[in-house]
Amino acid sequence: MFERTVAPKLQDLYNGPLGVRGNWMVACVRSQMAWPSVVTEVVFRGRTIFLIPWADAGGAVGLMYPAAAVRLDDGEDADAGQLLISHFLSSLAWAHGQSIEVDQWSGGNIPRSMGGFNGPYILARDFIHPYVPDPIDTKVRLALGFYREGLGLNNAAYACLSFFKVLNIFMNKGDDQIAWIAATIPKIKDHRAKSRISFLENSGLELGQYLYVTNRCAVAHAFGRTANPEDPADMRRMRQDLPVVRALAEYAIEYHFGVKSSRTIYNEHLYELEGFTQIFGTENVAAIKACGKLDLNIVQVLPRLKVTLAGSEGYSTLANLNSEIVSISDGHVDVRCTSDDGLTGIMIRLNFADERLQIDVNQGLVAGDDGSAGAARGCAVTLLFIRDYILNGILEVWDSGQQKLLGRCNAFIPTNIDLGATKKAYDEQIRGLQAKADLRSISEIAR
Questions:
Q1: Which residue from 6, 91, 116, 196 has the highest number of Cβ atoms inside 10 Å of its Cβ?
Q2: Rounded CA gap, 440 and 372, in Å?
Q3: How many CB atoms within 10 Å of residue 224?
Q4: pLDDT tens per residue, range 399-436
Q5: Is the peptide bond before 17 cis (omega within 30 degrees of 0)?
Q6: How many domains does the chain have?
């Protein structure tokens, strides 16, 4: 959810993990991507990256930059910290298709940002990051670095050159680049790029030759046909060509270097069951998809599961559930999850045939009441989960023991309901259950 909000006070940030003294490296950023309005932890390459919101330091310092910070390990130098954060930011920029520039580096014994920030103020209350790729090949990492560089440049000519560098990583000869561009142009799907491509083709231009000579070479060289930074026509042409060159770089990153785009990840939906696929194994998943007859003990022991919603603090009744397979048919696996006290139960469907993680809060969720205060509070918590899920909640299922995300859905989109009235009805039921729990507590104490 995007929002404009009052900046938090600087002193309020440095508690919890951010208050831990150590050797910190901090990137002060300027981002077109919505930055979280609260401190957010992201695990990248086995390390915790802290996304720090812009903050009000008061006085002459004013607003502090939003930042990405990491606490260095013992013996780890500043360059290693900067490299880790830079790789993370390039991966994040690729996943979101938005620029993230580092204005300056900072750090110290606590993750101090720098003052003097003046925008942009694009914020997200909940920062959802289901896909942050981390390729290890140095050439692929270089391609992502050039891509982020290109996104952040406000000079169209040099942005084009950065995107051309992506192609130059795997093609060092001009003729090869010209041929690759000509072969790739028909595969480009971006609507802005396609509009420019149509115009250029209708002008009788051969696009491989045109883009290489009057775009790449015209920026890289100062002799012959060069892009004159003082010529309005040259700069206008570069701005108009930029969507095409960017689209070519994106195609190369995805289809030559093998880093999937967020659009591909969304279309495949593999992330919905990725962790469960690892648990079951690819051969068993293939057998499930083939609708074969399989033993319910296909997995000897399923982990305890936590069912929750992205961005929430969790729901106690769904936090540490026993899980067992109850059926395998038609390409899906039904898993029954129950609490230790037997009062809460939820059915989870692993729909491998369609690569979907599914629940039914109306028919597949049980909240029992044994007459105790705890049971009433548990029912209230479970109703809160249902309410939050209906209000565009993003379902997540975790391995409770390893704290590992096994599956995540897209935001739930309800249909044919009055959201305002639905929320009000749930809120009234939750308050009623909480009041019932309070009365039961008094009665239990009096016994």
A1: 91
A2: 6
A3: 8
A4: 998 888 899 888 888 888 888 899 999 999 999 999 99
A5: no
A6: 3
Does the pLDDT of residue 91 top 70, yes or no?
A: yes
The whole-number pLDDT of residue 173 equals 93
Q: CA dist 170 to 32, 138, 147, 234, Å?
A: 29, 12, 15, 28
Residue 106 falls inside a structural domain = yes
What per-residue confidence (pLDDT) applies to 224? 60
Q: What's the burial of 368, exposed, middle or buried (CB within 10 Å: 0-12/13-18/19+)?
A: middle
Is-contact 303 289, C-beta < 8 A?
Answer: no
Q: For residue 6, what pLDDT band results from cuts at 50, 70 and 90?
A: low
Which of 412, 415, 409 has its CA nearest to residue 386?
412
Do 300 and 428 share a domain, yes or no? yes
Query: For residue 286, which amino acid is it?
Result: A
Residues 6+ apart with CB under 8 A from 159: 150, 151, 153, 242, 245, 246
Are 55 and 168 in the same domain? no
- Close Cβ partners of 349 (under 8 Å, ≥ 6 residues apart): 332, 333, 334, 335, 356, 357, 358, 359
